[in-house]
Amino acid sequence: MRKTIGILAHVDAGKTTFAEQLLYHGKSIKKRGRVDHKNAFLDHHNIEKDRGITVFSEQGTFVYKNVTYYLLDTPGHMDFSSEMERAIQVMDYAIIIISGVEGIQGHTETVWQLLRKYQVPTFFFINKIDRVGSNVQEVLKEIHINITKNVCFIYNNVKKEEMKEELIEFMAERNEYLFELYIEGKYDKNLWFTSMKEMIKQNKIFPCFSGSALQDQGIADFLEVFHDLTFTEYTHHGEFGGRVYKIRYDKQGVRMTYIKALQGTLKVRDEIRYGNQEHFILEKVTQIREYNGCKFQTVNTVSAGQLFAVTGLTRTKAGDGIGNIQGENRSQIIPTMRSKVLFDKALHPKDVLYYFRILEEEDPALNVEWNETLQEIQIHVMGLIQLEVLKKVVDERFGLEIYFGPCEILYKETICRKVTGCGHFEPLGHYAEVHFLLEPAKRNTGILFESRCHPDDLSVGYQNLIRSHLYERDHKGILTGSPITDLKITLLTGRSHNKHTSGGDFREATYRALRQGLEKTENILLEPYYRFKFKVELDQIGKILTDITKLHGTFKSPQVTGHKAIITGRGPVAMFMNYTMDFIAFTQGKGSMSFIFDGYDFCHNTEEVIKKKKYNKNADLEYTSSSIFCSKGQSYTIKGSKVEEHMHCL
After folding, report:
1. What percent of the chain is predicted at pLDDT more than 90?
2. What pLDDT score does 375 carry?
């Protein structure tokens, strides 16, 4: 049996120390390292050693009671959340580490939300119980309030023969069949133990443990119980299928595709298929590597349940399904800021862009852009710490000294009422027409597509092509040129020509129809929001509430516990991104604060942003609402405001 487990936490909760203990108890390492000693087994990059934080998701391997465990240690800092999310996609089980002193922190909630998105069975471990101020019961209460009420605290080892009454009662309350057995007084220990394993696997209950990773308290007990309560079921038969979770280039510049095998087997020299059904790619695996920390060994064959890396695949992306696993997992973590890359003018921009394209392969969230008008490279980022790390990465790997410009907020646009849009593309020898219904969608749902077009009017192949053109890139809004989002696009009808319709015709018609619809309706500017949590002294409540109001935030009634007050709420990233220093100053460093991304919502200063952006929708030739028609062998253009009467579809 093989199990992939992930360790996740808010920064400084003791996650990497906990991972070191598991590797030590699994006899994978002979000596336990420490983050502060810069010798942790999985934090082997110089950047991680210098900063004392995990930046890259790395894997270790150990064997416990004849089961092979793949352990993924993930970043705990918010700026590297996308790296963490990619690792979550291949986990069989997750372990959330929570500090017994600090309790639930902002990133803890982000971790939990992502684990629920991917439905990863989860265990909790309350760490640092040896520290002054640690309070396990208080943390459990926080988990109940902020995370889940389905958490069960495990005081002792759980054995088939020793299922405690309180644990049986806890399970019975959450399962109708077990409740009936409980009422009837049926206490078959084996049945209750097996049921517990199933309920954990089904994300119905979440066991919680406590201890001290630094002092090795409770780790051995946890590992034993975790081993007994978890299981995986993989089939080694049939066609190979897996999920890509990471792209890396090694020190020799070799492109590595990291894969979790989900079924079947894979051998060196096998051809592997990936990409969408219309344009799949077939490439040969030239090498297979099994990694443990920074070291690896080459193998000839891998099978379901294993984590490994291969060479030979040139266009894979993190999240891709490969082999008989189709589809792509889209990231939920979205950067909220943009920055431009500054470098010596003696360097050619295209050379620098090449290096950033490599970094983008490894971290797609960077969304590297070349702005032809401004002749500059722009990247999307989560925060300033990420920029500092990127600067060092580029220096170490490519020998380039770079800097970054000020961070700018990434805005988005949507509409507030439904409208139809149409586009026609008919230069001589080409033909395509598209009609859309555009409707506002629920906030933070992105672009949704539906087709009501009858196959007799437009073939299913062309309908799928239109769909792919809508998703192949971001589409600009008309207020600031920011990407559109939260939009349901319904294909009403369309038309092709037996002889003249070719490759890019429906791309042109699709883009024009979308733009034409946007120009006919009311558009809304959206900005990213933080969900925040402040913990301050009681006499500081007035100050913090005043600040939140000034920064255009909203808040719930403060929760008072002892001499402290907890204030939660949400507000624009643009207003709160630089609030940290002010907060530290007036609390004299004794308060605590956390921010997590909370999606997009109405922009608090729309007119100001539109004025600053100076976007001229009529001057953006790449995004036009005009359509092109043809008559008597001559093409002519009709403006978007007048195209309806010229369309060929009724």
Report:
1. 64
2. 85
140 and 122 within one domain: yes
- Separation CA 123–CA 228 (nearest Å): 13
Chain CA centroid to CA 411, Å: 19
DSSP state of 328: B
Cβ atoms of residues 292 and 303 within 8 Å: no
Calculate ∠ Cα 193-199-200, nearest 5°: 95
State which H helix or E strand residue 355 sits in.
Answer: helix 349-362
Query: What pLDDT is stored for residue 32 in this prediction?
Result: 79
User: Is the predicted pLDDT of residue 35 greater than 70, yes or no?
Assistant: no
Contact indicator for 647, 433 with CB cutoff of 8 Å: yes
CB 130 within 8 A of CB 216: no
User: Do the Cβ atoms of 78 and 382 come closer than 8 Å?
Assistant: yes
Q: Is 577 within the bounds of a domain?
A: yes
SS3 422: strand
- Provide the number of structural domains found in the chain: 4
Amino acid identity of residue 388, one-letter, is E
Q: Is the pLDDT of residue 49 over 70?
A: no
Confidence of residue 44 (pLDDT cuts 50, 70, 90): low
> What single-letter amino acid sits at 532?
F
Task: Kindly state whether residue 330 falls inside one of the protein's structural domains.
Answer: no
User: Could you tell me the two tokens for 336?
Assistant: 């909220």
Assess if residue 329 is contained within a domain. no
Please give the single-letter amino acid code of residue 146: N
Whether residue 156 has pLDDT greater than 90: no
CA distance 202 to 319: 23
Q: Which residues contact 33 (CB under 8 A, 6 or more apart)?
A: 20, 39, 40, 41, 43
| Residue 236 located in a structural domain | no
Answer yes or no: do 379 and 313 share one domain: no
Where residue 292 sits, what CATH number does that domain have? 2.40.30.10
Same domain, 642 and 552: yes
Amino acid sitting at position 493: T
- Among 384, 410, 436, the domain boundary falls at 410
pTM of the model as a whole: 0.84
Q: Could you tell me the residue range of the domain that residue 93 belongs to? A: 2-229
Nearest to 331 by CA among 245, 429, 423: 245
Task: Express each pLDDT in 93-102 by its tens digit.
Answer: 999 999 998 8
